[in-house]
Write a structure and sequence with these properties.
Elements (H helix, E strand, L loop, with lengths): L1 E8 L5 H11 L3 E5 H10 L3 H10 L7 H14 L4 E5 L5 H13 L3 E10 L2 H14 L9 H12 L2 H10 L3 E5 L4 H15 L1
Parallel strand pairs: 1-3, 1-4, 2-3, 4-5
The structure holds adenosine-5'-diphosphate.
């Protein structure tokens, strides 16, 4: 049975960095980031990448069909039994589609949804700091797009939290500490579930 962990968090919460470090520490874990998978597709220059770019560059959600296909493909190709995907779900529709998929997929179980929680102020500071320092500038790392990404993240959040709280699957981690402290807690939590 494959075990799936989802990591959600605001832009700037550090969810991708945390998940990457978890996978580096633990050979049993395969990590995928929805944002990174979409940026890779954009970078390939494909027609699909062009469609994806028209959403990502504005901070809007990529259409559901593309998102579902992307995560199902990732789950299927993962070479290990523990899979960590960050950046999903980002809407109630995505949450429900995954739930339906998992109902029919007897080989994969959702172990937990980890929310990396930071305040909007901290998130904004990190994103704009990243934009100022980074050599690889993401064109969605600017103030206007940041506020839209934050809104797109925050609007469906209560419903997503409630859905997973009811299932006993939501784990909240304080994202306003050092990366090491956050990753230690996340790693211990994942290990306690596998
Ligand atoms: P951040 O969370 O810091 O904004 P990500 O790399 O996780 O950065 O996501 C970047 C962009 O990729 C999002 O603004 C959105 O356009 C797209 N994206 C990522 N995950 C999803 C998803 N689950 N559904 C739809 N679009 C997504």
């Amino acid at each position: 049975m494959k075990k799936l962990f989802l990591i959600i968090g605001a832009p700037g919460s550090g969810k991708t960095t945390d998940a990457q470090l978890i996978a580096q520490r633990n050979g049993e874990v395969t990590h995928y980031s929805t944002g990174d998978m979409f940026r890779a597709e954009i970078g390939s220059g494909s027609e699909r990448g062009k469609i994806i770019d028209s959403y990502v560059s504005k901070g809007n959600l990529v259409p559901i069909e593309i998102v579902i296909e992307t995560i199902v493909e990732a789950i299927k190709k993962a070479p290990t039994d523990v899979i960590v995907i960050d950046g999903y779900p980002r809407s109630t529709e995505q949450m429900i589609e995954l739930d339906k998929y998992l109902e029919n997929e007897t080989n994969v179980e959702l172990s937990s949804v980890i929310e990396v929680r930071v305040t909007q102020e901290v998130a904004k500071g990190r994103i704009l700091g990243r934009a100022a320092e980074s050599e690889v500038i993401r064109d969605d790392d600017n103030v206007e797009v940041f506020y839209n990404r934050m809104k797109v993240y925050t609007d469906p959040l209560p419903e997503i939290q409630n859905f997973y709280i009811k299932k006993g699957l939501l784990k909240v981690i304080n994202g306003e500490r050092t990366i090491e402290e956050i990753v230690d807690e996340m790693d211990a939590f994942i290990n306690s579930k596998i």
